Amino acid sequence: MKPYDIASVRERFRTLSTRANEQLGMFNSESIGIGRYVAGKSPWERHSNGDELLLVTDGEVQVEILDADGTSTIEALTNDTLFVVPKGKWHQLTATDNVNVFYISPSEDGVERTRGHPFDGGDA
Predict the structure, then answer these.
(1) DSSP string of 72-85?
(2) What is the arrangement of strands in the sheet containing 30-37, beginning at the earlier edge strand?
(3) For FRET with 107, which of 21, 40, 45, 46 sits at 20 to 30 Å CA-CA?
(4) In the chain, how many domains are there?
(5) 49, 28 Cβ separation under 8 angstroms
(6) Considering the domain boundaries, does residue 78 fall inside one?
(7) What pLDDT digit, counting tens, does each position of 14-71 carry?
(8) Cβ-based neighbour number of residue 25 at 10 Å
(9) What residues make up the domain containing 94?
(10) Residues facing residue 56 across a β-bridge
(11) Contact (Cβ atoms closer than 8 angstroms) between residue 67 and residue 77
C-alpha cells in the first residue's frame, strides 16, 4: 500500500512536451496510472479482457470508438470528463495539444495495438 500524490504527477507532466506514462498501482488485475499525451494520434487499441476507464485531468482529447461494422463514434473529452471504453472495442485518442489522462486499464495480456486502422489491414 502506497499513497500517490496525483497533483504532483500532473504538475510534473505539465512541463513535458513528450509522451509519458506513470503507473500508480494495481486495482485487482487492472493497471492504474496517468498518461501524458502530446498532439497527435495514439495507436489503435482494444482490450479483450475488460473495460477501460479514462478521466481527463488536464486538457482535451477526442476518443474514437469503432463498432464491429466499422462505423465510428467520436467523443470530445475535456477536464474532469470520465469515459468508459467498452471491452473489445477498438479505440484511439487524438489530441491537438498536451493532455493528461488518468486511466484504469485491463492487464496487458488482453490488449491489441496497431498504428494503422484496424479494419484496413492493421499496421501501416
Answers:
(1) EEEEEE-TT-EEEE
(2) 20-27, 30-37, 99-105, 52-58, 82-85
(3) 40
(4) 1
(5) no
(6) yes
(7) 888 899 999 999 888 899 999 999 999 999 999 999 999 999 999 999 999 999 898 9
(8) 12
(9) 6-120
(10) 101
(11) no
